[in-house]
UniProtKB/TrEMBL annotation:
InterPro entries xrefs: AB_hydrolase_1, AB_hydrolase_fold
Residue ranges constituting the AB hydrolase-1 domain according to the UniProt record: 34-252
Keyword rRNA processing appears in the UniProt entry: no
Spans annotated as Disordered: 1-25
Lineage: Bacteria, Bacillati, Actinomycetota, Actinomycetes, Micrococcales
Protein known as: Alpha/beta hydrolase
GO molecular function, one term: hydrolase activity
Keyword Ribosomal protein part of the UniProt annotation: no
One of the Pfam families matching this protein, by short name: Abhydrolase_6
Organism the protein comes from: Arthrobacter ginkgonis
């Protein structure tokens, strides 16, 4: 497993201090601006391996409301989060439109951005998006998680279970303890209800939807509904990967993003998703 490399911009122990705007450091902007939307148990610092890999691009890693540097803010809903991201893109993108990448919560918010602000998105890639709702077992696990929210040992256990590298586990734990339980409860209630946003079919650009081959099947189960709204979408499985595979295998994840955003192609190591037009 490739470890997370520390950012040159911010101490790794500060979950609220990771920058949101990363200018191209290699002297050129190879294929426009990349926007990475983080998951719900983490902050924008989760994208450090991607920021390091895409030094030839402007990269934006916004803090979503209620997370990272914004833990004191109330969760106002997925639509509000999408509008927040759109405003950030409009203010900070050096290229007008962007290549949007989201994982987990970031993937669900990303779909809302496509529905509400399609003019801002040149291409999109979402991984781990729950669009079909979740069952009782997942909800029970989430309820248990919320009861243990203030326990440091719980976050350490989560870090190990998710495959967070050793040098990132302190950061993951500190961020989890800093995030408000009521924020997480409100967000999970909305995400777990499932459903696709109104107006999503109005997005005409390319979309790649991915599920880790070893993450819960409920993610891939939502692919047919997504295909009905966006028939141009491509669907794939990341071989052997779990939910947070941007950290689990950053080399493959980064290669996938580069293939899709820069070349408009699907990385050849990704597997066809059964039951879709790509199978």
């Amino acid at each position: 497993m490739t470890p997370l490399k520390p950012s040159p911009h911010v101490p790794r122990q500060d979950p609220a201090g990771y920058p949101e705007v990363h200018p191209p450091r290699a002297g050129r902007d190879g294929a426009g601006t990349l926007v990475f939307l983080h998951g719900g148990n983490v902050g924008n610092w989760m994208w450090d391996p991607q920021v390091q890999s895409f030094a030839d691009h402007q990269v934006l890693t916004p803090h979503l409301p209620g997370f990272g540097a914004r833990v004191d803010e109330d969760w106002e809903g997925l639509d509000s989060a999408a509008d927040d991201v759109a405003a950030f893109i409009a203010d900070e993108s050096a290229n007008g439109t962007v290549h949007l990448v989201g994982l987990s919560l970031g993937a669900v918010v990303g779909l809302r951005v496509l529905a509400r602000h399609p003019e801002l998105v040149q291409s999109a890639l979402v991984s781990g998006a729950v669009v079909d709702g979740v069952g009782a077992a997942v909800r029970a696990a989430a309820a248990l998680q919320l009861r243990l929210w203030d326990s440091e040992w719980f976050w350490r256990l989560q870090a190990s279970a998710f495959g967070i590298p050793e040098d990132g586990r302190r950061l993951y734990t500190d961020h989890g303890l800093s995030t408000r339980a009521d924020t997480m409860r409100a967000m999970l209630d909305e995400v777990y209800a499932g459903g696709l946003p109104a107006g999503l079919s109005g997005y005409a650009g390319p979309l790649l939807a991915v599920a880790g081959q070893r993450e819960p099947k409920l993610v891939a189960r939502g692919f047919p509904a997504l295909h009905r709204e966006l028939p141009q979408a491509q669907f794939r499985l990341a071989p052997g990967m779990h939910h947070a595979w941007s950290i689990e295998d950053p080399l493959l994840f980064n290669s996938m993003v580069r293939a899709w955003a820069v070349h408009g192609t699907v990385h050849p190591r990704l597997l066809p998703a059964p039951g879709t037009n790509n199978s």
